[in-house]
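Lab notebook, page 48
Experiment: co-folding of the full assembly
Goal: obtain a model of how the components sit together before planning crosslinking
Operator: M.T.
Materials (sequences as entered):
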Amino acid sequence: SQKIEQNSEALNIQEGKTATLTCNYTNYSPAYLQWYRQDPGRGPVFLLLIRENEKEKRKERLKVTFDTTLKQSLFHITASQPADSATYLCASQSGNTPLVFGKGTRLSVIA
Amino acid sequence: DTAVSQTPKYLVTQMGNDKSIKCEQNLGHDTMYWYKQDSKKFLKIMFSYNNKELIINETVPNRFSPKSPDKAHLNLHINSLELGDSAVYFCASSQVGTGDEKLFFGSGTQLSVL
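Observation: model returned without errors.
Model output:
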């Protein structure tokens, strides 16, 4: 069955540095990957989508890459700020199945 | 205006009771979902409805019954609540066929079964 994994449960970085989060998938080839942000007590909020034929996607300080050879997506936040502290979820789907989420990485940006 | 709204925000109840969670979306989307987020924060699909019809029903006990009176509403009714049902339940919606199917989530209902 399709699996999507975020191996780092938590990541602590200093303000101003670049945060890099990893998402790996196995047993399928998703047409796209999505990244969401979830704050405590709130629902996930969509951030970015990257398709299998795209290498990289950017939005302001966010950058997502998609490597179909490594079966991996990387999510970068440059010039990180304490306000970026949240849990980040990657998600994808195969065929007509609903979106499947990874377990998330809790990012803490320390001032 | 909240795009996806669900009520109540918190629900505390005794084992064995029956409870409902309501969800409404004003985005004009044709597909709605229920996800369950457990204590380890793992978000798992429960049901998916497209235009009021059940599309996906993952391995969920039949004590859980979704109801969609129209495509803007998807309610979740839970019978004979058990301790293991304690979790946060999220409603979401999307427009299938747009090419990205990004989900819009409600703010969640934290269910505590005592």
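Interpretation: The interface with chain A takes residues 4, 33, 35, 40-45, 48, 56, 90, 92, 100-108 of chain B (CB under 8 Å).
Next step: discuss with group before ordering constructs.
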